[in-house]
Input
Amino acid sequence: MLRVAVVGSGPSGVYTAQALVQQTRVPDVRVDVLDRLPCPYGLVRYGVAPDHEKIKSLQNNLRSVLEDERIGFIGNVEVGAKGLTPARLLDAFHAVVYCVGAAQDRRLGVPGEDLPGSRSATDFVSWYSAHPDSPEPGFALGGVRSAVVIGVGNVAVDVTRILARGAADLRPTDVPNGALHALAASGVRDVHMVGRRGPSQAKFTTKELRELGALPRVAVDVEPTDLALDPGYADPSALPAVNRRNVEVVRGWAADPSGAAGPAPARRVRLRFFLRPVELLAGEDGRVAAVRCERTEPDGSGALRGTGTYEDIEAQLVLRAVGYRGVPLAGLPFDRTRGTIPHQEGRVLRDSAPSPGEYVAGWIKRGPTGVIGTNRPCAKETVASLLADAAELSARPLTVEPVQVLRSLGHEPVGWPGWLAIEDAEAALGRSLGRRSVKIPDWHGLLGAARGADSARGDGAAAHGNGGAMPVLPGIAPP
Ligand code: NAP
Output
């Protein structure tokens, strides 16, 4: 039997597990999918915005993969913590595929970036997604009249939309109750989404952009002087399809500002371009009060140049949505420039040579780009490499059972039944609030719910002989 660990249960991890069990080249494969959190699905659970219910429903597809009898889920286990090193994992598995994503937000590198009221979009996303590591305090929006979102990628569009959308629209979603109340008390009237280049070069995708114009009682404004600077806006014919379609949407708003004909808008989204943030300015209370931007313009060679003219945009809240970055995992090589693990067709490279039994897939392999589906071919490439190496890998005798390793190091894993119990607890929380399933936002609540599964099943810790650790681990019984 070939025993494989997949580290990370987001789309890239689950697609990797799926590709491993769906192939026929190596018939006897057992995959354990490990996650730092007691909950699976990575950014589908903790990144996709709550109002994107269709994308959220992808969790059902990921669930059916994780329910395959050849696949086990081992949550609440952090590789790199409590002595669980990459080398130690190789004692228990013939191969390990790292699908750990890109966990950190990129920095702007401008003065004032860390003023109170300036936060990363990642923090905001974690907050409205009920991530248990979401930093305190959350977001108090009552005193915010004008918000600036820096960046024009899909994360920027997500956070702009959540700020602009009425809280009532989010009530039927799984958004945590605290965030729902804070959004209901929001004083936000204007959300400025600011790009340093033009609309024809923005990173958002058209469906996501168009959604901004479909929000009830939200007007979308564009600034003609910004648009005039973009040669691709004037003549989009040579642009790639997605950029051309984006330009068409922006042109529509320029010709007929969204919401102009309907009832008075409650909020306004202002799309701005060719503005490079150079400083965040503090008000008298020491909190952020404005973003100072330098006007940029195309330099004729595809790059930008500053013009030396500046514009201050009022902001009591700034969300920096300028991309993610991979973080190093102790014991694995790391390319600091790209923020990825160096690899060749998914094989981890140590000193330029493939490291036997170590693989990567997803954002930590290729950087934080693409949509969820991009992870499928990425995972397949990695799995093809692993299968080509399988004969050699499975010839190596394993010295310990995964369960043994985890328990001996003091990890308290949560298995699939524990996760199902969290789901049940979230459904019960929703019912008690008169809502659909509502996410539990903290470690204590999540682990308490997972432990409940264990006692309800009547086969508690002692029965599993792990001295009181959370034993909900039927998926990782010895082969
Ligand atoms: P992204 O697509 O790389 O966009 C980052 C944005 O930040 C760009 O507009 C970039 O401008 C700007 N930026 C970078 N450094 C900057 C600086 N120093 N000053 C000003 N602006 C700066 O990243 P993302 O929005 O975080 O998205 C990450 C990935 O997740 C993408 O593949 C995205 O499509 C995906 N995603 C998809 C969805 C969805 O499908 N609904 C939702 C969320 C995320 P330049 O282009 O000028 O560098």
User: Anything to note?
Assistant: Confidence is low (pLDDT under 50) at residues 456-479. The domain at 106-322 is CATH 3.50.50.60 (FAD/NAD(P)-binding domain). Residues 375-394 form the longest helix (20 residues).
